[in-house]
Amino acid sequence: MHYSLPTAAASEEDLTGRYVSAVRRAAKRDFPVAEIRRFLEPGPIVLVSSAWKGERNVMTMGWHMMLEFTPALVACCISDRDHSFEMVRQSRECVINIPTVELVHKVIEIGNVTGDHMDKFRAFELTSASASLVKAPLIAECYANFECRLKDDRLVSEYGLFIWEVVHAYVADIKDPQTLHYRGDGEFMIAGHSIDLHKEVSGKNM
After folding, report:
1. Higher-pLDDT residue of 19, 27
2. CA dihedral (187, 181, 49, 122) positive or negative
3. Are 49 and 95 a contacting pair, CB within 8 Å?
4. Has residue 91 been placed in a domain?
5. Alpha-carbon distance values, 63 to 4, 125, 175, 184 (Å)
6. Judgement on whether residues 186 and 97 belong to the same structural domain of the protein
């Protein structure tokens, strides 16, 4: 089903009602459970930069989620087949960099190759910037950079799940950045405009 949004002149109630009605009428099909990640990808594609024993690397990653407000904890899944796995495991540090749509082709290229025998910063013409509290480099072309230290590694061996504490953050003053959200099979969704409903939201947990 493809649903076309009403024009901007339509009321909010009309927009919501028409969409919900369309979803209610749409035929739904069985879907392979191995592919449900296409609907549950948790957030924007990120570039994880790392440094260890004089080497630096960047990997593309999509599996991550927030765990706590304070301290700011982020969990991410990194396969032990990735070159970055041992680098972040040994250094216990990384930087989570958030790219926008302008970097989409570099994001794909970085994810397509291993850093075993190349410096991805040089290969993909990324600007390395010094972090404040960790040795891993920032990626200057990314609109946000989160310096991380490993908080909990108890699930790394079994699941490749690293729990990071963000110890310093930089965010560029850009309105509605167009971040990349991967839906599998080479399909990306681009973040669109924001809507401000803060008056309707109560409490910090949303």
Report:
1. 27
2. positive
3. yes
4. yes
5. 30, 25, 25, 12
6. yes
User: How far lies 40's CA from each of 1, 13, 59, 120, 174, in Å?
Assistant: 19, 27, 21, 29, 26
6 and 43 belong to one structural domain: no
Q: What is the pLDDT of residues 53-107, one digit of tens each?
A: 999 999 999 999 999 999 999 999 999 999 999 999 999 999 999 999 999 999 9
CATH code for the domain in which residue 82 is found: 2.30.110.10
Q: What is the rounded distance in angstroms from the CA atom of residue 75 to the CA atom of residue 87? A: 17
Contact 56, 48 (CB under 8 A): no
Residue ranges making up the domain that contains 14: 1-30
Residue 95 to residues 38, 108, 164, 185, Cα–Cα distance (Å): 25, 18, 10, 27
pLDDT-based confidence at 12, cuts 50/70/90?
A: low
Same structural domain, 174 and 98: yes
